[in-house]
């Protein structure tokens, strides 16, 4: 029987010698000094060799490479930097475009739990009875506790007509609920801006649920509709808006922010970037509703409104995500979402892990059907209009 030593010197040895050379090239290209890291590099090669030659099951090289990349990105301890396998990468683009095959729910991470922010009317999720505040603990057989957002979204989406099972924790119940009926994926095209004139008032009310490629155009359409109805003030609801595209948030902000900066992007490398407004196009008194679920791109808009005095923020402190991710395409359809910059408000405030404080603090009432934050915003808007 051939010895392990001769095997390592043979085919396996040649394979991993090539692998070692490739790893060395990658490390050199990244500017890492092998003189101080050769032991770790050697361990990497040894582990790959041992897995390929000693592990009980056959392991595909692609699986090992993907695992190495995920581990590298995971070592950053940055929950917003994620390796995206081809399926997840494609679904991220679908989410940005605002049309996809899925269940019709908007989700976010709250206290490290995957939480439903909204179930859109008429979608499979809404028909099954899923509501805002539900905590998703399992997606099919996959434990969803501590899961990153991109992976969760990829698991819930799939081919139109296919089924998915969600296990839900709800405050009002003691036992987990399983939603299996009617959770059949459909083609979902989600509006990101919805508006109305509040009954008995001349106040426009617009909800922005997230920022996608379509949000800016949807905002223009909704503003035009509200202005035709001769509203005298606007309440913009950014509560539980998890963010989205930076450019979409900037373009929405141009409707409300006076001439000057909207946001500064502060990069580690290269020139910093400033996004500015040429002057607000919506000449209406403005109130913006915010809460702990208002994050990222939503905070760009809220921060610009606060710093420029373009409106009044009502609610509670925002989430505090003041960093920017860039999505880089990789080979074979994969991608890398990497934190590449931080953003600063027009007054150059860094709000990461700090959040934005409202101008008018209004705590929500738990277990109440009343929306005291919206009620307070209406009261303040009436004063603005009357004044």
UniProtKB/TrEMBL annotation:
This is Carboxy-terminal processing protease CtpB. Its EC number is 3.4.21.102. Residues 89-157 form the PDZ domain. The keyword Transmembrane applies. GO terms for biological process: proteolysis; signal transduction. It comes from the Bacteria. GO terms for molecular function: serine-type endopeptidase activity. It comes from Pelotomaculum schinkii. It is an enzyme of class 3 (hydrolase). Belongs to the peptidase S41A family. It holds the Pfam family CtpB_N-like. One of its GO terms (cellular component) is outer membrane-bounded periplasmic space. PROSITE patterns: PDZ. Keywords: Hydrolase, Membrane, Protease, Serine protease, Transmembrane, Transmembrane helix. The keyword Transmembrane applies. The chain crosses the membrane at residues 12-35.
